[in-house]
Design goal:
With about 180 residues, this protein is of the alpha+beta class. It contains 4 helices and 11 strands, in the order H-E-E-E-E-E-H-E-E-E-E-E-E-H-H. It has one domain: CheA-289, Domain 4 (OB fold (Dihydrolipoamide Acetyltransferase, E2P), Beta Barrel), CATH 2.40.50.
Length: about 180
């Protein structure tokens, strides 16, 4: 103990010096929660599916044709020992079938008992959107795709329509694959 100083004074002096020499605490930065999804293109539209609804992205596999199936049913693929039906999303919504290119991809979805692959023109990668850029009302969309669109995001001058894979998987028209 320092002579002549009361213990409380010593503690107050230590506190004062500590505060004077202390570095500032890190500032709390407001953390924004971003909405994330897989961006893809079909029928000339920028689409984004919730990240939780796309299980895998594949290159176009070798297929076995399925006789008596709708034209938009491309066939069955053997993916690691599991048969995966491949559907042409663009063909399903009444547009011309997708012309296969090096960018064409299969989005694998699992919704309830349904596991299928959706052929799309291209996958545009992981997309992140700020919630304040969400658009609830979407205008000027083909009526065949509109039931699967649940809002959109505006990002860098482009509209990204949110495609709900669960709504597609529950649609009786999508499940009716036989001609």
């Amino acid at each position: 103990m320092t002579e002549g100083k009361h213990p409380v004074e010593l503690l107050l002096d230590i506190e004062r010096r500590s505060k004077h020499n202390a570095k500032g605490l890190p500032q709390q930065i407001e953390k924004k929660t971003l909405w994330s999804g897989i961006g893809f293109r079909a029928a000339g539209i920028n689409l984004v599916a919730p990240l939780s609804q796309v299980n895998e992205i594949l290159h176009y596999p070798k297929l076995t044709l399925v006789p008596g199936a709708q034209a938009w049913v491309k066939g069955l693929a053997n993916i690691r020992g599991t048969l995966l039906p491949i559907m042409d999303l663009q063909g399903y919504i009444g547009k011309d079938a997708i012309t296969l290119r090096s960018q064409s991809r299969i989005l694998v979805i699992r919704q309830g008992d349904l596991t299928t692959g959706l052929l799309v023109n291209e996958v545009l990668g992981l997309k992140h959107f700020e919630p304040e850029n969400r658009v609830v009302r979407v205008k000027k969309l083909d009526k065949a795709i509109k039931p699967y669109i649940h809002g959109a995001f505006l990002h860098e001058g482009q509209t990204w329509h949110v495609f709900d894979m669960a709504a597609l998987a529950q649609d009786p028209l999508f499940l009716r694959v036989a001609v």
